[in-house]
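Table S2 (continued). Query chain:
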Amino acid sequence: MIGYYIIGGLVFLISAYVSNKLKSKFKEYSQIQLQNGLTGAQIAEKMLSDNGITDVDVISVKGQLTDHYNPSKKTVNLSEPVYSQRNAAAAAVAAHEVGHAVQHARAYSWLGIRSKLVPVVSIASKYSQWVLLGGLALAASTAFGSYVLLLGIIMYGMGTLFAFITLPVEYDASNRALAWLENENMLTQNEHAGAKDALKWAARTYLVAAIGSLATLLYFISIYMRRR
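Corresponding output:
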């Protein structure tokens, strides 16, 4: 289990660094006020309109960095600072979340695959670590433990697959957001550079999570192969 804790520790440290960097970037770009004077909510509504999407609502939700698109309710949920503020960070986040709404409207394949996996992954992720640990404990004394360990690996693998499928979804949403902001001349050059950098660090949080999940999965696979 030492290898597991080493991997977990490294992933935790890298994740903490990226998370802190993301927060500092958003704080920095929250100081760049938009010359167009639009709030995050207004930017989101305009991007929806420009893409011909009329059945999605933009709403405010509590918290910070709680922004997300809800495909079942068709709502772009913006955290209170993003919803009401007029800065480069708010513009980046608002446009990114609308990017997901555009993906939904255009039937973007990776988003569809991720949505279908959500019910399975939500259950697998909840219990996979317990099954893995149980499998490791049982494998030391009974052959049945190897089957339990394999089940845990499959369950954890579903979460890893989901993490990697999330990557193109998130990067594509950011690309759509930045392209629209640039094509519609919504931001000045300095504002656009800030928005782009903020989204770059946001995407890295998903990248670190996916790599960390893969490293953990490979670790448990190596244990299973040694005990066969």
